[in-house]
Amino acid sequence: MKIRLTAITLPRIGHKRAVMLSDDDMDKYVAFRRRSVKDNSIARELTDIKAILNWSVKRRSPLIPFNPVRDCQGPSKKDEILLPPTQDELKRIYKNSPVHLQRFIMLSLFIGARPGRVEILSLRWRSVSWDSATILIISAEKGGPASRQVPIHKDFFETLKKWFAADVKKYGESLADAMPIAHYYGRPVNSIKKSWKSALENAKITRRIRPYDLRHRFVTKALQDGADIGTLAEMVGSRPETLRKHYQHVTSAMHRNTMDQISGLGMDDDA
Q: Is 204's pLDDT higher than 70?
């Protein structure tokens, strides 16, 4: 049996094939996935696979008699220190990107939304409120609010206006208004995976940088500049405790800086 399972393809496995899965199969799956992704991603995928099989067992009319990999132990999750792209790397990636990817990059950097079809790639011009200088983001299902209204950074507002004017000139106002902001010749973009990979290669960047790291840069910079973590969590559609966990290296430095600014805590010499 060839092992290339994902949580998406697994439900299509028939009754007998699902029961035939073993821990050895899952070990092969882990080895295969390690060619392209990190252990944290693999651990999440295995959790999804086991959850789907458990659901199949618990159906009122069970789809399979038991979960054969219920006790399978995958790689342990590790809390990674996130290293966002540097300013130089960003400039090189942007310079080597097609127009739709350049827009994707700028949207990610200035509003910190999640990459992919649910947030960044679903943003349309009608999502922008020019009067209040805000943009409405429909949130991915990550436990936060269903949507959020995010202020547009003053350094990005004029750029957005120029993009919109260019789209209106080319496609007409009614068509442009319903069009995705990051589009490919007027058509929606479902994935930037290939263009991102090409941009990194052309920029001569060999270290692993993901589109998601643009969001990390936004959050990191906001925290370094003293943003309130609760307000920032609302803006990026996350929880404060999640930000504290994944950006501990940033918040620890903020704690030290805050402590160094506190004066007058010493005892008087004659106390």
A: yes
pLDDT one-digit tens code per residue, 73-132: 777 666 556 678 999 999 999 999 999 999 999 999 999 999 888 899 999 999 999 999
Q: Are 101 and 180 in contact (CB under 8 A)?
A: no
Q: pLDDT digit string (tens) for 229-260?
A: 999 999 999 888 888 887 877 777 767 777 77
Torsional sign, CA 210, 215, 220, 221: positive
* All structural domains of the chain with their residue ranges: 1-78, 87-256
The CA-based angle 78-81-87, given to 5 degrees, is 150
Architecture of domain 87-256: Orthogonal Bundle (1.10)
User: Average pLDDT of 59-84?
Assistant: 75
